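Input.
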Amino acid sequence: MPKFGQMVEESTILSWQKKVGDKIATGDIMFEIETDKANMEVESFLDGTLLKILVAEGQTVAVQTPVAFIGNPGDTIPEVKIELLTPGEKRAQADAPARAAVPVPLVAEPSHIPVATPVATPTVTTQAAPIPGRVLISPRAARLARTKVIDPTSIKGSGPRGRIVEKDVIAYLDKHGYAGLHVTPAALKQAAQ
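Output.
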């Protein structure tokens, strides 16, 4: 798991763009992550075959944790224990008691493809096209949209590659007079459902 910025301690894998058995080239988008600040796509810096995925979609791990192996078919698969975190949990301090490592089940790994080299510190791309049908939205903007129970798909994003950021949601709420509405908590709950 790459470390983006000095304050980032952990990241969650939102989606894998490659699956076990896929050929990987340097620069290919491997997966998308979410930090407490933003969502980012992570590129491979290696060529080879994606042999094993260690961290599944929706799982959170500390930065610098191996998340997958890239190698050549026939390579030996090392045994790796991954420490899963709950989103928002900070990495343990050096003087804190160590948490027990949790073995992670393999994610769709064909038995005929073994594993080799760990994926280490990939780079981020800012040029890749968005995935069709997906809304690019920052975590803060998504949280605000959920709180106000609005559908963000109709909001035009002003962030990188058209990503919806918090100020876009605020502008949308202002434009539609949301502050002047008197919505009861029960109505918000029913709208969210």
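Strands lie at 10-16, 23-24, 29-34, 39-43, 48-53, 60-62, 68-71, 84-85, 117-118.
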